[in-house]
Amino acid sequence: MSKKKSVFEGSMVALVTPFRNGKVDEQALKGLLDFHLKEGTDVVVPCGTTGESATMSHEEHRDTMTFVVEYINHRIPVICGCGSNNTEEALGLVRHAKKIKADGVLVVTPYYNKPTQEGLFRHYEFLASRVDIPIVLYNVPGRTGVSIAPETVARLSRIDNIVAIKEASGSMDQADQIAQLCDLPLLSGEDSLNFPLIATGARGVISVVANIVPKLVKGLVAAALGGEMEEALSLHKLLYPLSKVVFIETNPIPVKTALGMMGMIKAELRMPLCEMRPENKKKLADTLKGLGVVK
13 forms bridges with which residues in the sheet? Predict the structure, then answer.
């Protein structure tokens, strides 16, 4: 089995989309991108689940992808979220990412319509055969209602431009089975499992927590990838409470609330998402204070 080269690795941020008065706040978005460049984030991933792509218009989605790619300007890679439960719609987004010279695309399994494993295979094969761009598969069954089976991942891994899988099922078994069946580089999509997944062979993380503490997440990932397991474990323990509290309510409600507390963005969400319950907001604030992120 020829080893598939790791195209994307390290600490990658599942970037939030800041809104102000119902529109994408490009000024705040610039500030977030500057923050990640300064703090050492390896890859930026806009327009995914954390970026509220589900409530962005097609025009906003494309414009935000373009804005991020142009502003980053090849300083670090940009992987654009291009998922849809409509294969043709996903193709339009992937083609746009190619046109604007994004470094890759993140494509979630189609949600709501619950395709079979054969349907999932055909969805990704269709996209990969029509646009020559590195594709990262994205498995998050808690969101989509469908899980991509390790056997299907193994079939897809034979396609040249499918370069990695973001695994956010929360199952170590799922990750281990993928590793047993094929050589597709694995990326952790579950912050509380970043350390154990890298310890068992993952090449990096696509992290929600990295929105808040990019330097610490980068430190954990770099230490674990470099074999400095004691250092990585101590950072895992430090970050673990935050990696739990940012999912105390539906993502990205807590992470946007945190960035609001930090003065980085206006903590504006789009319905049907709404502000945090006061008791959960207090837990979040206490965790941020414990890390010295807010006073």
Answer: 44, 207
